[in-house]
Each structure stands twice: as structure tokens, then as C-alpha cells.
Amino acid sequence: MTFLGETPEVSARFRPLSSVERPPVESPSWFVAPGSMTNGQYGLFRYEVKPLAGPQAHMHRTFSEAFYILDGTMRLFDGADWVDAIPGDYLYVPEGGIHAFRNEGDAVATMLILFAPGIPRERFFTEIAQIHASGRTLTDAEWTEFYARHDQYMV
């Protein structure tokens, strides 16, 4: 998106920490800047990964994703290799790029996840938190449908 106006605008948006949304159930996600706040240009989430947790390798067709480590050590997969990422490390994954992350440590690790464009990724994190909180077990077919509905394809 390019600004084509003649004069600058007063259009910045401040969001205090107290207004950061969290899913309605126990979840490791904070919706710091969802696409609804950024005119759909990007989404930014803060994500806490419990020890011995993280998704398997997957890809997205319609959005890129970036990971910035805040605390702890995360194993990041770039489609070819796993690396131990520490605070300040960053991984960019373009559309179609295979990736994964995993916390293999014994403490929570925290990272920022940025995705662009700012598709409504909040529903993915809210629904997955609800599934885990309910103790519900999905079949392989249900997981495949769930992931496809949210543009996540396991590889």
C-alpha cells in the first residue's frame, strides 16, 4: 500500500498494554496489533511457548510470517535446518515457506510473530486455545479441515 496524498496525515494509532486483547480462554497469545488495527497490512502477536511445545513443519499460502525471539531459546526450522534462536534472533518465512518452531527448554520462551498481510489470524489462535482448553481430541480429518480453514498446511 502506498500513500498518494499531498500532505501528511494525523493517522497513527496508540494502543496501551492494558487494551491488548487476549483470547477468551487460557491462551499463550496476545493480539498486540491484529489486522483490524493495521488496516490489514500486518498482524503482530506476542506468543509464549511452553516447554516441549510447538507446531510441526507447515506452510501458509496467503501470508508471510516472521518470528522475533524475546525471551528464552526457541528451535526455529527454516525448511532445511533447525537452529537455536535466542533473544534478538529473527526468522522470515515468505508465503509457501516451510517452517516450524519448538521450545525444547525447561522454561517458557516468548516471541513476537508478525504476519503480512494482516489476515484475521486471531480466529486460529482463539479456536486452537478453545480446543486445548476443552480437552477435545480432533481426528486427523478434523485437524486437516481446521488447518485448511486457517491457511495452514502441515508438511
Cα separation of the termini: 32 Å
In CATH terms, what is the fold-level topology?
A: Jelly Rolls
Name of the level-1 CATH class = Mainly Beta
Q: Please state the second-level CATH architecture.
A: Sandwich
CATH homologous superfamily grouping: Jelly Rolls
Radius of gyration (Å)? 16 Å
Write up this protein.
This protein is of the alpha+beta class. It has one domain: Jelly Rolls (Sandwich). It is built from 2 helices and 10 strands. It has helices at 122-134, 140-149, and strands spanning 29-33, 43-49, 58-59, 64-71, 74-77, 82-85, 90-93, 100-102, 109-116, 153-154. The protein is globular, with a radius of gyration of 16 Å.
Element layout with pairings:
Blueprint: E1 29-33, E2 43-49, E3 58-59, E4 64-71, E5 74-77, E6 82-85, E7 90-93, E8 100-102, E9 109-116, H1 122-134, H2 140-149, E10 153-154
Antiparallel strand pairs: 1-2, 2-9, 3-10, 4-7, 4-9, 5-6, 5-8
Keywords:
155 residues; alpha+beta; Jelly Rolls; 5-stranded antiparallel beta sheet; 3-stranded antiparallel beta sheet; 30% strand; globular
Produce a short descriptive summary:
This protein has helices at residues 122-134, 140-149; strands spanning 29-33, 43-49, 58-59, 64-71, 74-77, 82-85, 90-93, 100-102, 109-116, 153-154. By secondary structure, the chain is of the alpha+beta class.
